[in-house]
Amino acid sequence: MKQPMFFLMITACISNAFTQASETKIVQLPYEIILNENEKLIIRENGIIEFCKKFFVYKKRGMEYPIYESLLTVNRKNNLCGINIMEEMNDGAYASYTLIINIKTKQDVPYEKDGFFRFRDFFSIKNYFILVFAEKAYAFDDSNGELLWMQTYKQKDGRRIIINEDHFIIDDMDGNRYKIYGNGRKIKL
């Protein structure tokens, strides 16, 4: 049986319009992310994210479960910061929470949060900050956080997303391959 751990594995993604790079390290909670010279974000072990005296709940109290490992993915581009916390329980099940905040306005960026879609990645295409789940992708203007588009598909498990300068490529459950451009246009290949 896996023993509970009190650590987060951090994947820090450094992104621009042409490159996507990541670094993984393990840290102990609480964990602080420095966003700029004035602001920091704190992920607490009690299921709370604190940012600019605002609190976001990623794990409800009373719903505690034994955690084997937590994967934290962070991506920052201009005014936006995306955070995903994916926790693996001892029974092999996963719980995931995704938050996008606008560092300039100190607000969370609204989008249709659906806990049933598994988080895949954050990345950037030109001035689009893109959030990808297994069945949906969202694009935000990286300067102001405005939701620009939402695109649906059914990403095949185990397949990688191919990121290019102006589009990304996904394979769906039925073996179809799609090219999705930064403006949300989807073309079947």
Give the ordered list of helices and strands. EEEEEEEEEEEEEEEEEE
Q: What sort of overall outline do the alpha carbons produce when their principal axes are compared? A: globular
Oligomer: single chain
Q: How many DSSP H or I helices?
A: 0
Mean pLDDT: 78
Structural class: mainly beta
Largest sheet: 6 strands, mixed
Portion of residues in helices? Answer: under 10%
Please count the beta strands (DSSP E, at least 2 residues each): 18
Q: Using only CA atoms, what is the Rg?
A: 17 Å
Contiguous low-pLDDT stretches (5 residues minimum) are: 1-6, 11-24
Distance N to C terminus: 44 Å
Q: Strand sequence of the main sheet, in spatial order? A: 2-1-7-8-9-10
Percentage of β-strand residues: over 45%
Tell me what the structure shows.
This protein has strands spanning 7-15, 20-28, 31-34, 40-43, 48-51, 54-57, 67-77, 80-89, 94-102, 107-108, 119-125, 128-133, 136-141, 147-152, 162-163, 167-171, 177-181, 186-188. 26% of the residues are buried. It has 189 residues and is mainly β. The N and C termini lie far apart (44 Å). It is globular, with a radius of gyration of 17 Å.
Structure at a glance:
This protein has no helices and 18 strands. The protein has 189 residues and is mostly beta strands.
